[in-house]
Amino acid sequence: MTAPVTLALTAGEPAGIGPELCLQLAMEERAQRLVVIASRELLQARQALLGLSVELQPWQPGDQAVTAAGQLSVLDVPGIYDTAAGTTSPGNSQYVLDTLTTAARGCLDGTFDGMVTAPVHKGVINEAGIAFSGHTEFLQELCGVERVVMMLATEELRVALVTTHLPLKDVPAAITPERITQVARILDQDLKIYFGVHHPRILVAGLNPHAGEGGHLGREEIEVIEPTLERLRHEGIQLTGPLPADTLFTPHWLDNADAVLAMYHDQGLPVLKFQGFGRAVNITLGLPIVRTSVDHGTALDLAGTGRANAGSLHTAIRVADQMATHRREHRPQAGESS
Q1: 165 assigned ligand-binding residue
Q2: Where would one find coiled-coil regions in this protein (predicted)?
Q3: Any binding-site annotation on 88?
Q4: Domain ranges of the chain
Q5: For all residues of the chain together, what is the average pLDDT?
Q6: Quick one: how many helices (H) and strands (E) in the chain?
Q7: Does the domain made of 1-145+287-338 have the CATH classification 3.40.718.10?
C-alpha cells in the first residue's frame, strides 16, 4: 500500500489571515494529512483572539499528522517577533523565510510530499533588508533550478505565464525563443507528471493585439513566437497559436485545451480570477517539489476578525494532494507500489 500524502502548510505573514486560515482548517475533519509550519506561539495567540479551541499537536518527522476535527499538527518554528494581527513587523521577516525553508527542505528530503503556502508580505520582508521578490523566486533559488513557471488554475481553466512580475514596458524584450522554449517544455512535462494529462493541448496567446495582425500591430509573433512554437511542435508538444488573447478565452478554443500559455501577467490572470477568484490556486511548475498557494494576499484588514474565507486554501491543499498523488503514479518511489 502507498503511504498517505503528507503536506506541509506554511502559515505566511504573521499579521495576515494565514494563521487563522490554518486554524479554520482544524475545525473540521480533513481528508489530507497536514503539518502546519509556524510558530506555536503565533497560533495560540490567534486562536485566543478568535475564541477558537484547537489542540495544537507537536509534530516531528516520523510522526503521523492528525486529521481529526479540533486538532492540528504543528512543526514549531521559533523566532517570531510579534504576534499581533493586522499590523506587520519587519522583525518577523526572517521567521517567515525560515518557515518556507523548513517546508521546502522537508519536501526535498522526502519528509513531505508537497507544500502549500499561505500569503506572505513581500514589502515587509524587503523593509527588513532582505531581498525577496516572492515565493516563486525564493523556492527557485532554494531548489537550484534555472526556470520555474507560474500557473494559476481553477477546476475549469489553467493559465501559465511566459513572464510574471515585470513592468509592461519590459515584457517584449523578455519574450525570447529561449524563455518560450523553457516555459513550454516545463508546462508540457508537468501537466503530464502532476495532472495526469497524457498529451497536453496548449493554447498560446500572442503578445500584441490580434496577435500582431500579420505584422501590422507588432512583429513579435512573426519573428519570435511562431518560429519557436514550430520548433517545439517538432518535439511533439501540442501548441496552438499564437492566438489573439481577446478571443482565446472562449469556449471555441478552451473546450479543446488543457492549458493556456499567456505572454504576461495581466494578459491571462484577470480572466482566470474573474472566472474563479476565491477558488483558484497558484501553482509553481518546474520545481523538483510540489508547491501550491492561495490566489489572494495577506488581507491585513480581515486578520483577527474571523471573517477570512478559507476557500482558496482548501483548493490549494486539494490540488497539492492531487499533484503529489499523480507524481507517485508517474514516478513510483522506492518501496512504493506502482
Answers
A1: yes
A2: none
A3: no
A4: 1-145+287-338, 149-280
A5: 94
A6: 13, 12
A7: yes
